[in-house]
Specification:
The protein is an alpha/beta fold. The longest helix is centred in the middle third of the chain and has 13 residues. The chain starts with a strand and ends with a strand. The strands form four sheets. Strands 4, 6, 7, 10, 11, 18 and 19 form a seven-stranded mixed β-sheet that branches. The chain has eleven helices and 19 strands. Helix 9 links the parallel strand 16 and strand 17.
Length: 364
Amino acid sequence: MRAAVQHETGRSELDVRDDVEAVGFGPGKVRLRMRATGLCHSDLSAMNGVLPQLVPFVPGHEGAGEVVDVGDGVTGLRPGDRVLVCWLPSCGGCPACKRGQTQLCLAGLMEAGTPNFRMGVPGSGSGSDVFGFAGTGTFAEEAVVGAGCAVPIPDDLPYDIAALIGCGVTTGLGAALTTADVAAGSSVAVIGCGGVGICAIQGARAAGAAQIVAVDPVASRREAALRFGATEAVPPDALADARARVTGGEGFDYAFEVVGTSATARAAYDATRRGGTLCVVGAGAVDDLFQVNMFELFFDEKKILPSLYGGGDVRRAYERAISLWRAGRIDLAGLITHRVPLSGVNEALAQMRSGEALRTCIEI
């Protein structure tokens, strides 16, 4: 089958090959035929080493498709079912799951250390092991994943939109609606207006925020932010002026950092009012340190809330996103600005790096 492979950390382009096979099918597993996958910035971060990932690997974790086969012991799924890929499934039995913090369950990520692809001579049992990003790997025609990674979707949900709900939509909406719990009538700043940032904007709008200021260096993304609910959009060097105008200099009730660097996190912290909330959504590097001094931490009483995968039960979050989409409260189709076949995956990478795309749908 065809898949896109990252052979070593730091390579800027993927190798689209025809000699890859999905392996590891057995008890508790399902085999999926991928139909659509989104390119998320986390895929780039894994490729360049910001996020740790064993190599070689098949990127992609934001996908949707149909079940081809189910292994022994799998219940609730059968061949032909339409599903989205959950890259962080919960086990239901660990301490985090028992506390209701299923987004912190590590059971699924433990699978990331087991190869689920092989490249070389398909069907021969020989060749080289290949890992799937975050234990999945959706930049492939087929993937073998744990049954918990395959979540059934309703028939009226297109594969391309379902794929986005699998990561970016859930992450952005959840940051606003669950982690930060944006209050109606509040003021919001969102730093970083790619696909996830746009969904944070939509979440803040759905929650009833009165002012939503989008901050991004790319003009096309600022224009998109306005279409999706921002009340104004500014480049980073105009954030201080927006803070002064919109909040009278007090600072925003909520500031969302959706880039993943200490510099943007610090800018978001400074833009937050005393007693307000900084919500950190971007995934950054282990050696990039965010610093605040002990006096301001105590005196300003700003809440610093990281948000992993939307900060809540992802299956409930999927259902919420679908309900909001059906009701016309959020626009998910509009997030897809570009479409390419799997053979054009490197074109998709270029579109994301330049800021040209909010989300590129890779049709498989």
